[in-house]
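Duplicate of earlier report; BTB/POZ domain-containing protein At5g03250 input re-posted below.
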Amino acid sequence: MAFLRLCSKSEIFHREGHTWVCTSGLPSDICINTEEMSFNLHKFPLLSRSGLLEKLIEEYSNGEGSSLNLRLDDIPGGAKAFELISKFCYGVRMELTAYNIVSVRCAAEYLRMTEDYGDGNLVMQAEAFLNEVLGNWSDSVRALEACEEVMPQAEELHIVSRCIESLATKASTDPSLFSRPSSGRETRPSPEDSGLWNGISTATKTQHTGEDWWYQDVSFLSLLLYRRLILAIESRGLRPETIAASVVHYARRYLPLMNRQSSFDDVNSTVTNMPNTCEADQRALLEEIVGLLPNKKGVTSTKFLIRLLRIAMVLHTSPSCRENLEMRVGAQLDQASLVDLLIPNMGYSETLYDVDCVQRILDHFMLVQQAAALATPPGIAEEGQIMKGSPDSLTPITMVANLIDGFLAELASDVNFKLPKFEALAASIPDYARPVDDGLYHAIDVYMKTHHWIADGEREQLCRLMNCQKLSLEASTHVAQNERLPLRVIVQVLFFEQLRLRTSISGWFFVSDNLENS
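Output:
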């Protein structure tokens, strides 16, 4: 860490409780109070270096030799900063570091310690050292953190923006091109980085050598500063994947719910035990994190986005935040798994999982697919190809069809799962997206088994969702023996199976005749 030693005199200050006393041998003629501390000092060393103190001493002095009592509650950095200021005025040895340079620089500006009050005054020396600090990654992070304590003054002196500029430039540059020593942070190992082998820990310290080398350091910043830094880095054209990974790292650090299993008991206890102020802070944090995630499809994992969506429901974030997450998930729904879609129901619906949320996500996925099909030039994909589809173009929608069929089968055993919602979800998938309807048939069968009281007309309506010609031999055999299905459906499946068998036999005889003629 960078440091600068100023002045050379030995220590002449000592502390007595909440009072700093100068032991120069002369009686004190001024007492300066800031926060809970008092400084018994002398007028001349102070007014010779500070324009503000010179003005205050002249204004409030009652006469030569009289003692003066002043309050400086507005000084940036408070008592700690004024202690260093006092040492500088007396020429006592002091040390500037990345931790205190910001408060000292702001305090020097506040006290008007410019070159008008002595050559090599504190404003000039602090400014020169600040420039040195900004040349180093870790020191720049420390200086930016220190700005939190004196934010109004640091903003006015453009120290915050300079720190962010420095860090943004370095984050978007090869770290080998500048000095980047360890930040000295102590971090807890993640579960992925630790393990046990025969009772011996195999945890190792993670060495960040790729694009993620700066994630850990900036994760200690407050949300306000982190947001400004990410926007500055993004403006320099850094890859969206890198930006997203940093935001994910930050979210996992400050959103406790990110690292908890989403069981109903855990969610309920979390909401119950969370103070209102804490819940409000978490809600604001999550909404900011969602806003920082790059919009590019695929740069943020679907699993993480759904996890954020679950937390957004727990924390009752704004509707626009939840809608944003649902649209992001919908755009890349083909990358989700069945477990991801089992979102606990936070509303007043009776179903165990949130069917309405999954329906909205699926609707957005279909809109994205339709927009992509319309945007495809006619010379590349004809109308028939769009409807029937090639294996490559149908891969995402086929994966989503299988996913939704699995979701329907999972929820079919819920007695509160209403038939209209089942039908709406199943019908959202176009017929061409399902090469085989076995998954949908399984969901329908489970639903009929659980909801055994539904009328025959509703059973007929439910079975119209599947295409009997697209059932495999195994599924067709099961249909033929399924007493829960309407008789018409069983006859239809047997008819198509017989048709398929006749076609196979005819083809076999045709081949045999050709072989005999040869």
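Residues 23 and 329 are 68 Å apart (CA to CA).

Merging into the original ticket.
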